[in-house]
Amino acid sequence: MSLPSIRLKPKADRRLRGGHLWIYSNEVDIAATPLKGLAPGEQVVVEQAGGKALGVAYINPNNLICGRLVSRDSGQPLDRSLLVHRLNLALSLRTRCFDKPCYRLVFGESDGLPGLVVDRFFDVLVVQISTAGMERLKGEIVDALNQVLRPAAILLRNDGRMRAAEGLESYVEAALGEVPETVPLEENGVRFEAPVREGQKTGWFYDHRMNRARLQHYAKGKRVLDVFSYIGGWGVQAAAAGAEQVLCVDGSETALSRVQANAALNNAGDRVATLHGDAFEALRQLKADNERFDIVVVDPPAFIQKRKDIRNGERAYDRINQLAMRLLARDGLLVSASCSMHLGRDRLVDILRAGSRQLDRQGQILEQGHQGPDHPVHPAIPETDYLKAMFMRVLANG
């Protein structure tokens, strides 16, 4: 199959040669190779300014990131055969790291499949496609997943925010088999049911697996507050590890009903309670009620979606973490997490330091965590390194 070509401007190939996969529209020599004639999702051969081929990318001429490299062999486009190969590579990593088939199987660029996410829940796969290039290959993706894993069911959760920017419609549909409303999973030896059809993202957040395992070491006999709890990933695991009492706070009553169900799955229903409401207001009310907790987990949604949100987002992280610190008992532990790529690890540490000093307390960071190995970091793409978790002991001054 002969592919059309795009040619880059002089020196615009440096990032690609360094390992990156993205091509920006202002890097393309549109005088030599116009983008306008290309259809969203179409695959092209990428050439440096001198004409040497760099590989194959799929294109969306309507976006600033107009191309994503999918092969460094200009004769090998992304097709079913290459998809099967990349899926097998991804699978070999996950089976090496985890003893149960519950994990993120494909993490976009980090697994050589930009625009594709696949989460595995035993024999059910939940797929998210966020780019026009991957949408064009939807049938081949389903066929390749079926060939590699033989799942009982595949759900397409194609309703993410990025799709609108790519000119794609949102939809949720079963591509294979019958997909129930909730599916089982196991993480760190704890059982859950995830709402894959109606829940957030794919229904579960595997990225904090290692950090939730860390929490289990601190939880026995403690009173734990899980803020932005969703369906209880942190709180239920703390209860399963022996926490004396857990309170999960979330703005979704539906999510909190799942907390109770997941606690019951692990024989911890009598030690897990829920509180529905806005997290900031709930923490203020708990403080007014003189409540105290040995451990407070703060794992909010991304307060910083774009660079323009940094100032307001940092203020939100500061406010929520100070509210959490005020609820800690003497010698308490704050677990402060962020999934905002634009909030650097050092900046989160600084926010926690400043917040503790403003309350006249002393912080000690005991551990730092980030995403698990099923969310590998692409060393040339900083955006793939996004998750932070700080385990900070908070002491009174003295």
Describe this structure in words.
By secondary structure, this protein is an alpha/beta fold. The protein folds into three domains: 5-71, Archaeosine Trna-guanine Transglycosylase, Chain: A, domain 4; 80-179, RNA methyltransferase domain (HRMD) like (Transcription Regulator spoIIAA, 2-Layer Sandwich), CATH 3.30.750; 186-396, Rossmann fold (3-Layer(aba) Sandwich), CATH 3.40.50. It contains eleven helices and 19 strands. It has helices at residues 14-17, 80-97, 132-136, 138-149, 162-165, 209-219, 233-240, 253-265, 279-288, 310-326, 345-358, and strands at residues 5-7, 22-24, 43-47, 53-59, 65-71, 102-107, 116-121, 124-129, 153-158, 171-176, 183-187, 190-194, 223-227, 245-250, 272-276, 293-298, 328-338, 361-369, 388-396. The strands form four sheets. A seven-stranded mixed beta sheet has the order 15-14-13-16-17-19-18, with helices on both faces. Helix 2 (80-97) packs across helix 4 and helix 6 (209-219) crosses helix 7 (233-240). The longest helix is centred in the first third of the chain and has 18 residues, at 80-97. The mean pLDDT is 96.
